[in-house]
Amino acid sequence: MVNEVCLRTLDLERPWLMEQYQSRGGYEVLKQVLTEKRAPEDIIEEVKKSGLRGRGGAGFPTGLKWSFISRNAPGQKYVVCNSDEGEPGTFKDRDILRYNPHQLIEGMILAGYAIGATRGYNYIRGEFWEPYERFEQALQEAREAGFLGENLLGSGFDFELHTHLGGGAYICGEETALLESIEGKKGQPRYKPPFPAHFGLYGRPTIINNTESLASIPMILEKGGEWFADIGVKNSGGSKLFSISGNINNPGVFEIPMGTPFSELLEMAGGMKDGRKIKAVIPGGSSAPVIPGDLMMDLNMDYDSIAGAGSMLGSGAVIVLDDTNCMVKTLERMSYFYHEESCGQCTPCREGTGWLYRVVHRIESGQGRQEDLDLLDDVADKISGKTICALGDAAALPVQGMLRHYRDEFQYHIDHKRCMVGAG
Amino acid sequence: MTVTVKDKTELFSPQICAEIDRWIAKYPAEWKQSAVMGALMIVQDDNGGWLTTELMDRVADYLDMPPIAVYEVATFYSMYELKPVGKHKICVCTNVSCMTNKSDLIVEHLEKKLGISFGEVTEDGRFSMKEVECLGACGGAPMMQIGKQYYENLTPEIVDAILEGLE
Questions:
Q1: What percent of chain A has pLDDT above 70?
Q2: What is the mean pLDDT of residues A253-275?
Q3: Does the CB of B79 have a partner CB in chain A at under 8 Å?
Q4: Interchain CB contact of B26 with A (< 8 Å)
Q5: Which UniProt key words apply to this protein (chain B) (predicted)?
């Protein structure tokens, strides 16, 4: 079962066109829902049944999120799609936007129908110009076909959808920072509660879901929640897009069932480059704690299996590192990233990410002190759980993971003022 | 407000005004400010890739925002430039997937070829270099972005060919 949901049109020529999408049954389920006036509660129930969990990284059950909205509350409600793909290692939503934008549009309209929202925004990261143009073209086609606008297919349901372009800020992938950004402000996360379901975009009830989550909706409604759930395993319904990169022969995006052994995914990705030995895997984007290669070879690509090894499935971004990689240098680069991207709002994150980077940097450059390892643990601990959003945790987790599995490499750097793998 | 504007259409050319208006139309009428990111990008593109304080003030006037709110946005997001950049802004990703696929060689090659480092502009103003965080194209690592275009699976030879193909 490969490419059955979000990438189901990938084998077609110019799959981003309306006619191609429709040749695979695209927009059929939307027509059915609208003409039969399917009960919105029934749609939410089906999504719950599917076991779909937020594909942006947090893994929160999508159907449950939708049920937090009071559908009949008066006034404007919004559906927002998070296409601000920026977690290092993640490049799957880009492919949905480029190759199957109509399925995302259909998913967003269905989400709007389910929660009673008549407006949607798709927040695409500003660097994604090609995906943005594809999505805009698809929006125009959808408008012309009567799938967007007023009184869709005579159903009495209105839905309008627009793109918002980001400006280069990782933090805007955090849902409330993203909403701030659409409102034309700095992307600094809001305190929760209130959650977006009650106080979201422009202070109105809002659901915000990842691109892949929303693009999964049409197939879930077409074939049923159970069908989707059964593709995957317990607690991890469906298939998932894995972006696999690093020191491998055939990096790319693979849509495969949840629970697929990592070893099979690695094989699909062509195995290790130059026949090198696998050293480590970052299984869910750079915030996910590293897992040693041999341990990873026994794990499956689902939430529980990866969590059982002390990491997380996150966005499904798998970075595979071979034995030429220095873990100190790898962590230095990751810590630099979180320092660079901290929005500056909370002191533990703003200051702590700088501490993490500077300490790892001095270890990497041969200036490390013996007490630095405890210092790293201490700083990471002082950030974790003490900030408004999860960026602080995302900065601390890789440090904790690296020290758990590769403490000897850090120690070697401090003792010998050089790298044990000879690369740095 | 820094200046009193009687007619907003005097702030920018008709074409720029029309482009900004397209963004304004996407949002609720009372939320013109939502168009600030789009407006800044349009104005920046029109000004050779960077923003001056005067341009930001005009955007503020156009969208009925306090200038400080526009500066906040322009300084928060990495794609806005507050100093001149090259005609071709070369953004090289050096994050983990690119790093392990030798993005350092790409950076070194560009530095040697252009005689500049990150944050600098060539004397003739044609190129500038910028280090960027993950651009979401790790399957094509190492990669870079020039203007709106992504270039993936780079080698020094491919970089040469790309630069030669630019105007």
A1: 99
A2: 98
A3: yes
A4: yes
A5: 2Fe-2S, Iron, Iron-sulfur, Metal-binding
